């Protein structure tokens, strides 16, 4: 509940670098709004919705159960996928299971993604998948959050080996994600040697877990609050190093951010903080309206760009300027 409260009060930090990307207008797109197909291809991941609700809640009893039910209902009504928050709480305490299983109860046929940290064992990963009949499993990397948490982990050895084993042995596709600090090219290269189906870059510029955890401690580790690979840069970094599906998240707030993420090569986009804000402040009806509006806006911009599906967006010419241009130059991209 602390995380939810501080995620809302610290807000989105707006450092994604998406503002440094412009599309080149195409005056002759030669298609109509009805030609647009708002679904995506994600290879082994088999996710069809280009937008999904990213991992947030679970554990914490009735309050998170209610919130998860609301999110699951919105996901069902709009036909999009949803990830639950870390299931470690429910693996440690079976009484917490209801707050996750509600998601499957509300949306029996939906695409639901389980979630655990990279400290999880193969056995825990299998239990988490079974708990909610997950269609895929996210494994999150959150070194900066743990370091900023007074009670957080201090030892991050062996994560890649555990991911390797889980991806090889579990029966559903595995996604490795960050939690708002981004995945670099170097990390993506390491992950490319495993059998994971997708990387969710979850970059800097949206929900900031260093800011959230700093709210919970007396001596602030303020240096971590501006730490991370901005989301637009992270998509480019991961795309070059990882041949499978790339998911975009971290500070995505509207359809324009999504279209830019797809143009950079992401196959789908996840929103956490901005959906949470709508869910808590305005309820499920507004969340459903917002998701439908996102899809409609996506269709409008795809029409203007002459892209009839999500994959076509990758062929759109882009103008990259400002900090993102500088960043890419220094990282050796042309
Ligand atoms: C999160 N996030 C998260 N991620 C994860 O893998 N496991 C988790 O349990 C949680 N918990 C969580 C709680 C709350 C309240 C928020 C807002 C977020 C991180 C989330 O999935 C995402 O990676 C980041 O929040 C960045 O995306 P946004 O929020 O900028 O869209």
From TrEMBL:
<feature type="binding site">
    <location>
        <begin position="272"/>
        <end position="273"/>
    </location>
    <ligand>
        <name>FMN</name>
    </ligand>
</feature>
<feature type="binding site">
    <location>
        <position position="202"/>
    </location>
    <ligand>
        <name>FMN</name>
    </ligand>
</feature>
<comment type="function">
    <text>Involved in the biosynthesis of isoprenoids. Catalyzes the 1,3-allylic rearrangement of the homoallylic substrate isopentenyl (IPP) to its allylic isomer, dimethylallyl diphosphate (DMAPP).</text>
</comment>
<dbReference type="InterPro" id="IPR013785">
    <property type="entry name" value="Aldolase_TIM"/>
</dbReference>
<keyword id="KW-0288">FMN</keyword>
<feature type="binding site">
    <location>
        <position position="177"/>
    </location>
    <ligand>
        <name>FMN</name>
    </ligand>
</feature>
<keyword id="KW-0285">Flavoprotein</keyword>
<feature type="binding site">
    <location>
        <position position="86"/>
    </location>
    <ligand>
        <name>FMN</name>
    </ligand>
</feature>
<feature type="domain" description="FMN-dependent dehydrogenase">
    <location>
        <begin position="157"/>
        <end position="314"/>
    </location>
</feature>
<dbReference type="InterPro" id="IPR000262">
    <property type="entry name" value="FMN-dep_DH"/>
</dbReference>
<comment type="subunit">
    <text>Homooctamer. Dimer of tetramers.</text>
</comment>
<protein>
    <recommendedName>
        <fullName>Isopentenyl-diphosphate delta-isomerase</fullName>
        <ecNumber>5.3.3.2</ecNumber>
    </recommendedName>
</protein>
<feature type="binding site">
    <location>
        <position position="115"/>
    </location>
    <ligand>
        <name>FMN</name>
    </ligand>
</feature>
<keyword id="KW-0963">Cytoplasm</keyword>
<keyword id="KW-0413">Isomerase</keyword>
<keyword id="KW-0460">Magnesium</keyword>
<dbReference type="InterPro" id="IPR011179">
    <property type="entry name" value="IPdP_isomerase"/>
</dbReference>
<feature type="coiled-coil region">
    <location>
        <begin position="115"/>
        <end position="142"/>
    </location>
</feature>
<comment type="similarity">
    <text>Belongs to the IPP isomerase type 2 family.</text>
</comment>
<keyword id="KW-0521">NADP</keyword>
<feature type="binding site">
    <location>
        <position position="146"/>
    </location>
    <ligand>
        <name>Mg(2+)</name>
    </ligand>
</feature>
<keyword id="KW-0479">Metal-binding</keyword>
<keyword id="KW-0414">Isoprene biosynthesis</keyword>
<dbReference type="GO" id="GO:0004452">
    <property type="term" value="F:isopentenyl-diphosphate delta-isomerase activity"/>
</dbReference>
<feature type="binding site">
    <location>
        <position position="145"/>
    </location>
    <ligand>
        <name>substrate</name>
    </ligand>
</feature>
<feature type="binding site">
    <location>
        <position position="207"/>
    </location>
    <ligand>
        <name>FMN</name>
    </ligand>
</feature>
<keyword id="KW-0175">Coiled coil</keyword>
<dbReference type="Pfam" id="PF01070">
    <property type="entry name" value="FMN_dh"/>
</dbReference>
<feature type="binding site">
    <location>
        <begin position="55"/>
        <end position="57"/>
    </location>
    <ligand>
        <name>FMN</name>
    </ligand>
</feature>
């Amino acid at each position: 509940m602390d995380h939810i409260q501080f995620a809302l009060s610290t807000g989105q930090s707006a450092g994604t670098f998406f503002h440094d990307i412009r599309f080149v207008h195409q005056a002759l797109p030669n298609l109509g709004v009805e030609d647009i197909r708002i679904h995506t291809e994600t290879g082994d991941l088999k996710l069809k919705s280009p937008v999904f609700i990213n991992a947030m809640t679970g554990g914490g009893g009735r309050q998170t159960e209610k919130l998860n039910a609301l999110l699951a209902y919105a996901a069902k009504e709009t036909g999009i996928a949803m990830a639950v928050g870390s299931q470690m709480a429910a693996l440690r305490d079976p009484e917490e299971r209801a707050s996750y299983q509600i998601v499957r109860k509300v949306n029996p046929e939906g695409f639901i993604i389980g979630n655990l940290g990279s400290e999880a064992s193969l056995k825990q990963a299998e239990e988490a998948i079974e708990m909610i009949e997950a269609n895929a499993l996210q494994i999150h990397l959150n070194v900066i959050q743990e370091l900023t948490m007074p009670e957080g982990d201090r030892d991050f050895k062996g994560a890649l080996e555990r991911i390797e084993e889980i991806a090889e042995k579990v029966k559903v596709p595995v996604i490795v994600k960050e939690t708002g600090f981004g995945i670099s090219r170097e990390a993506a290269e390491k992950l490319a040697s495993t059998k994971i189906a997708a990387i969710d870059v979850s970059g800097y510029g949206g929900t900031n877990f260093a800011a959230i955890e700093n709210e919970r401690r007396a001596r602030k580790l303020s240096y971590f609050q501006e730490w991370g690979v901005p989301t637009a840069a992270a998509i480019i970094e991961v795309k070059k190093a990882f041949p499978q599906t790339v998911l975009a998240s971290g500070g995505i707030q509207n359809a324009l951010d999504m279209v830019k993420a797809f143009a950079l090569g992401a196959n789908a986009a996840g929103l956490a903080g901005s959906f949470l804000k709508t869910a808590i402040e305005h309820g499920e009806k507004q969340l459903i309206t917002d998701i439908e509006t996102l899809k409609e806006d996506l269709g409008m911009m795809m029409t203007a760009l002459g892209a009839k599906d999500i994959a076509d967006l990758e062929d759109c010419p882009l103008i990259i300027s400002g900090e993102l241009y500088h960043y890419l130059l220094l990282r050796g991209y042309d």
